[in-house]
Write a structure and sequence with these properties.
Shape: elongated
Order of helices and strands: HEHE
Helix content: 25-40%
Number of strands: 2
Radius of gyration: 16 Å
Distance between the termini: 19 Å
Number of helices: 2
Strand order of the largest sheet: 1-2
Largest sheet: 2 strands, parallel
């Protein structure tokens, strides 16, 4: 299976000049996603996760680029995150 990055590049090539494409790869985030999950699927107690507001800010940065400038890929993670990459 091709990696997601190839999908973003292919889509960017297919829509060039009409649609900007940015692949967003968010690392682990502090959300309620794991609240009702089995303990074995929850991040460990030492997990350092990113604040979702930081991810949103990075996405807004990508969306606010001037015409003709596209951020092709964003990997957003807490500086010392252990879960990704």
């Amino acid at each position: 299976m091709p990696c997601p990055r190839n999908h973003g590049s292919a889509l960017a090539a297919e829509t060039a000049g009409r649609v900007g494409v940015t692949l967003v790869i968010p690392g682990g985030m502090r959300t309620k996603f794991f609240d009702n999950r089995d303990e074995r699927y929850k991040p460990g107690p030492d997990a350092i996760l990113n604040d979702p507001a930081n991810v949103a800010g990075a996405i807004m940065f990508a969306l606010n680029q001037p015409a003709g400038c596209v951020v092709r890929e964003l990997v957003i993670a807490a500086e010392t995150e252990t879960s990704y990459p």
